[in-house]
Amino acid sequence: MSYSTFVCKEFSIIQNSEVLKLGTDAIILGCLSDFHTPTNILDIGTGTGILTLMMAQKYRAQFTAIDILHESFICASHNFTQSKWSDFIRCKHISLQDFCLSTQETFDGIICNPPFFSHSLHNKNTFQTIARHTVALSPIDLFACSQILLSPKGIISIIIPYSEKQTFCEQALYYNLYTIKETLISPFSESNPNRIVLHFSMTWTPLESSHIYIRNKDKSYSEEYKELTKKYISIT
């Protein structure tokens, strides 16, 4: 098993080869997720724990991170223990479905970088398949459980492929969760969006929409991406 380290400004992430590596999607989601003075936040499918740690840097709250994969649970638990917020984080090896049935808690913020390759061929690696495909967590499961787990003022924040926007928004609305904010993500300044960050709430408000791009034509990072991520990572 191989290990690598991803260093942020206020914490580090140790990754192993059996856990889906963190990437730009997670960084963007963590930077863009916006909750209303949360007292507790749930990270669904925590993986390496990057989103929980980003939220811990942003908010004074209690954090619960869950993952169905034992390897991810071990990885995230180690990263939480090594952070300065370890006293405020608990990590559980459990599926969202089982967690939803076993707790009476509600959360002011729910964050998830969900599996989204629902129609593509499955990866031969079981860990990668569960992390990247909807075999373990469908949009229906995500929103059905989130409706139960969300506090009245709570917000759900996710990142998905732009092509999946309609499916996720329709499923959310079925569970009375309204799309209140969207941020379209384009890889380059002149390219179409390929990702979107969505915020959902049980209270309807007019949709707030924005669009950012990650890189310039010459493949250097855009100024808006540098500004977005500057509290967490250093980009030259």
Characteristic key phrases:
236 residues, alpha/beta, Rossmann fold, eight-stranded mixed β-sheet, two-stranded antiparallel sheet, 8 helices, 10 strands, globular
Could you outline the blueprint of secondary structure elements for this entry?
Blueprint: E1 3-7, E2 12-16, H1 24-32, E3 40-44, H2 50-58, E4 62-67, H3 70-81, E5 89-93, H4 96-102, E6 107-112, H5 126-132, H6 139-149, E7 150-161, H7 165-174, E8 178-188, E9 195-201, E10 208-215, H8 223-229
Parallel strand pairs: 3-4, 3-6, 4-5, 6-7, 8-10
Antiparallel strand pairs: 1-2, 7-9, 8-9
Helix pairs in contact: 1-2, 6-7
Care to describe what's here?
- With 236 residues, the protein is of the alpha/beta class.
- The protein has a single domain, classed as Rossmann fold, CATH 3.40.50.150.
- 31% of the residues lie in helices and 30% in strands.
- It has 8 helices and 10 strands.
- Strands 5-4-3-6-7-9-8-10 form an 8-stranded mixed β-sheet. A two-stranded antiparallel sheet has the order 1-2.
- β4, α3 and β5 form a beta-alpha-beta unit.
- α1 runs parallel beside α2 and α6 crosses α7.
- The longest helix is centred in the N-terminal third of the chain and has 12 residues.
- The two termini are 31 Å apart.
